[in-house]
Specification:
Elements (H helix, E strand, L loop, with lengths): L2 H16 L3 H8 L3 H8 L8 H11 L3 H5 L2 H4 L7
Helix pairs in contact: 2-3, 2-4
């Protein structure tokens, strides 16, 4: 799995746990819906950490909580 897929899966998981739509997440995060959708649909291949931080703020979690999953722990090192 790559980083973009892990980020996408995590956002979808968190929205599912909270029963909120992508548009609602965008509103809570003070982001345009297109920004969140671009991450989820693969148009954004390198989302900024600030964007992920705003998503975390909208979800009421820290960056640490966002990235503290087995999916992120299992990512292979990008630079060998």
């Amino acid at each position: 799995m790559d980083m973009i897929t892990a980020v996408k899966n995590r956002i979808l998981q968190l929205c599912g746990e909270r029963d909120i739509s992508i548009n609602r997440l965008a509103t809570l995060s003070a982001l345009p819906p297109s920004s969140v959708k671009n991450i989820l649909y693969g148009k954004s291949q390198n989302p900024k950490l600030l964007t992920i931080k705003l998503i975390c703020d909208g979800l009421g979690i820290t960056l640490g909580e966002f990235f503290a999953t087995p999916e992120f722990d299992a990512l292979e090192q990008e630079i060998q």
